[in-house]
Predict the 3D structure of the following.
Amino acid sequence: MNQIIKNLLKCKSPQELIEEGEKSELKKTLNAFDLIILGIGAVVGTGIFTIIGSAIVGSSDGAGAGTAVVISMLLAAIASVFSALSYSEIASMIPVAGSAYTYTYATMGEFMAWMVGWILMLEYAIGNITVASAWTGYFVQFLKGFKHILPAFVVNCPLWLRNDYRTMYEICNKYGWDVHDKMPFLNLPFGLEIPIAINIPAIAIVFILTLLLIKGVKESTKVATIMVGVNMFIIVSFILVGSFYVKPEHWGVNLATFAPNGIEGIFSGAFIIFFAYIGFDAVSTAAEETKNPQRDLPIAIMGTLLICTVLYVCAALVLTGIVPFNAIDTQAPLAHAMRFIGMNWYAGLLSVGALCALTSVLLIYQLGTTRILWAMSRDNFLPKSLNAVHKKYKTPHVMTWISGLVVIICALFMDLNLSAELCNFGTFTSFIIICIAVLILRKTEPNRHRPFKVPFCPWFPILGILTCLALMYCKFSAKATSAFYFLIWLLIGVVIYAAYSYKSKRQEENG
């Protein structure tokens, strides 16, 4: 038992991790600008185009923030800034692929490293499923703008070819339709039926981006740069154009109308918004493909947080100033706002921006998933065969294919709201772990060079832990279904570690 506990707590030294990273076959091509593009691409799209409406109006599992969504965004940003500072210190100190997984291995041992890696899989892969399905919605709206040019079958594609089967059941229940009339069923013996619903646009975009990531991270970043450029132009123009139509009375004449659901609504909105802040975690996953990670990673992480928070707050102020909060469309809030003021042509333009934004998010989430799994495979938590690097492109092609296929398969049946909330629990947990890791390394490695240091340590990391715990508690206390499934996910991780990863690590050590 003593030996088992010793193995569970066995850490890799920062120096050992750095030496492994220096031997990496991954091509180092990224600079600070590339990393900021990756960060913005991951953060801005999800926050503004997919979940800001839910944060304002609320979801089935919690009240919305109303106009006070601005406070929710600032609260999420404050919770993020403490974690971002901690990420900056530890990423510049240990510039190795794997993000929070790698940093946990250096501070808390083998078992906690596995569990954090398992949580990061949830955070990225499931987050990608959510965004892929949202991408489909905007893509269908985009095609409708060309209904006079494209064939009718393309524009009016059957619902079962652009939704997962869970969404199909929800749509049929909402409108009172018979599901057998809206999607085909595969009849099996003993009276069993399997519904057939395939989200073809989501599958296609994930497949294309998987091919792009295999081609190379630099090529992927070039595509992300174009997408982010279009996205930023459209968001900034929305803020500038929409500001002329703002009615201050929509923001609320008193506290009750400004924050209709009080503190609960503000915290619930902050929890939902936090889904978008995975972006600066994604920056650290590309550490081994960065030319000067000690300098560029802190710049990119803090730059991403600052730029995106300003955009979030400005967009939220304009959105809630144009449309009364209880009339905001949760599916396409910005496009609906433009239609609300009679600018239908601009609503169509926003669908292009949303497609670009969500494409960049998909690309970067897929990049993050692959690099974390690749680092775990290198440490023998997963089969070594998955750690292969493409001889020509110098990318982890096997793991890239696997992560792409996981997203494609899960996108066929996973509940989207549940996916987003599960992703949030993963994000909060990884942020808390990073803050703890910084405190541990300040004690265990006090003399190691730190190109960037968290100011006011230990208070800022402690505040990062407390703010993330507070937001998580709000969701747990609301008896969220997602909280229960998150615990189930952790239990599955423990079982896999006990059944495979622990033995695999011992075999590596012995042979």
About this structure: The mean pLDDT is 83. The chain has one domain: 30-164+199-510. Strands lie at 58-59, 62-63, 185-187, 193-195. Residues 30-164+199-510 form a domain with the Amino acid/polyamine transporter I fold (CATH 1.20.1740.10).
